[in-house]
Every structure is written in structure tokens, then in C-alpha cells.
């Protein structure tokens, strides 16, 4: 997994997280010991805005992002990683893309 220290300040800023939050203030904490908490927090934050918002603000910060219309496969690798994915939701907001922090294992 690439070192996340380079990208953390920008992601923290757009998600309203404190860059010095002791749970997430190092790569090892974000991607190791506190990764599940990081995913929970990001999931909560991403649900606050539609996918178009996140695509725009992530692109403005030169952070990698894309909207995934369909997600119907699981990776075959055994490595663990976290990504921000945006998928179409159903129900009252049908047709609206909502973001989701996803964990693969």
C-alpha cells in the first residue's frame, strides 16, 4: 500500500477531519491499527454529500476519485485496501449517487 502521508492533509481537510487526530495522524494508524475506525468515519462523512460533490472536491485537491456506476465483483487478491467508491442508490433518492467507503479483503 502506498504511503498515505502525502495525501492525508488534503483528504482530512475536505472531510472535516483534524489532520492531527491522534487516531489517524500516521500512515500506520490510518491503514493499520485504526483502519476500521477510519473506514467508519469516512463512510459517515461521504454519506453527507452526493457523489458529484466528492468527485469535484477530490479532483480539485488532485486526489484520485471516480464514480463507479456498478460494483458487482470482489477483487481476487488477498491484500486489504480501502477506497472511496460511489454507487447508485435506490429508494427515495433513486438515481442519486451516494459515496461509500469500502474495504476489500
Low-confidence stretches: 77-83, 85-95
Structural class designation: alpha+beta
Sheet bearing the most strands, described? 2 strands, antiparallel
How many DSSP H or I helices? Answer: 4
Question: Which overall shape is indicated by the principal axes computed on the Cα atoms?
Answer: globular
Radius of gyration (CA) equals 14 Å
- DSSP summary, beta strand count: 2
**SSE topology string:** HHHHEE
Give the CA-CA distance, first to last residue: 13 Å
Q: Kindly report the spatial arrangement of strands forming the biggest sheet.
A: 1-2
Write the layout of secondary structure elements.
Elements: H1 8-15, H2 27-33, H3 35-46, H4 51-60, E1 81-88, E2 97-104
Antiparallel strand pairs: 1-2
